[in-house]
Amino acid sequence: MQNLLILGAGQYGMVAKEIAESMRKYDHIDFLDDNNPIAVGKLGDFEKLSNVYDSAVVAIGNSDFRLKLIEELRNVGYNIPCLIHERAYVSPSAKIGMGAFIEPFAVVHTEVVVETGCIISAGVILNHNSTIHKGCHINCGSVVKARAEIDAKTRTGYNEICDTEVKEVKQPLPVAV
């Protein structure tokens, strides 16, 4: 078992904690936050706590700040796991980047790539061969079409159909004789 440090004790932090608990992998789960009394310290305290916590994730909505903190944690030597809820489906061929969150009832299909620091909310469907670039937040109920690429730091609406930059396979139509 391991100890997990969550940077951010707001709404995303609570979601991250529940996902981590569902994984039954961590002995202790604690927070760092500048404004929440449940935290064991401030956001900047992660370096001095690296001897107590072997793993850390960033649960902050601002994608630029989230990605910056992930890089700082990595430089200090933390393991930065992806958190996958026990009730999410992730294909064995999917690739999930460090610090990504996969919430309950999300579906991550065949050969999907979810890059570093993404948040895949409850009920999202990422169809086969799609790519979610770093720092994205795909909101509840959204569907990413097959072979779509979602640009870095994109935040979708709820129940959105996403097909940006679809990589179509162009094949000639059969000719009837």
Describe the structure.
With 177 residues, the chain is α/β, with parallel strands linked by helices. The protein folds into 2 domains: 3-76, Rossmann fold; 82-164, Hexapeptide repeat proteins (UDP N-Acetylglucosamine Acyltransferase, domain 1). It is built from 2 helices and 16 strands. The protein has helices at residues 11-23, 63-76, and strands spanning 2-7, 26-32, 55-58, 83-84, 89-90, 95-96, 101-102, 107-108, 113-114, 119-120, 125-126, 131-132, 137-138, 143-144, 149-150, 161-162. The chain has a 5-stranded parallel β-sheet, with no helix packed on it. A 4-stranded parallel β-sheet has the order 4-7-10-13, with helices on one face. A 4-stranded parallel β-sheet has the order 6-9-12-15, with no helix packed on it. Strand 1 (2-7), helix 1 and strand 2 form a beta-alpha-beta unit. The longest helix has 14 residues, at 63-76. The chain is globular and about 45 Å long.
